[in-house]
Predict the 3D structure of the following.
Amino acid sequence: MARLEIGAKAPAFALTNQAGKTVSLKDFSGERFVIYFYPADNTPGCTKEACQFNDGLTAFRKLGVKVLGVSPDGAEKHVAFRKKYGLTFDLLSDDDQSVMTRYGAYGEKMMYGKRVTGVIRSTFVIGPQGTIEHAWYGVRADGHAAKVLATLSD
């Protein structure tokens, strides 16, 4: 699995959000944003992570930073997940894991002591020039949004 290095060009993406609208890297040209990859809607860790990012949105916005979540789940699941937890940021669908793979967020990982292939919980800050400013791989869901916010606030 190739990991993205700080300063590398962010891999292009064009994924649909919960409303079926295409969201792409180009949409954020000149802006800083967070894109995080997670395994599935409505699972304990993913729910905790999403809610914590949502709780921090005001602080992220004050820094001029948008947040995007990406999982293999489709729009219907994203709509239900957003509604159930009051999430107000876009959730994108990467059903074939192609974007996750380009970001190094899909591949072999250890889960409960077994080697499996799946989504590697990962987060990236992409800068105004479309480059990777920060990258976290294999993160713990709980408390991660606060770490990202702290990094951006420094």
Remarks:
- The chain has five helices and nine strands.
- Residues 44-55 form the longest helix (12 residues).
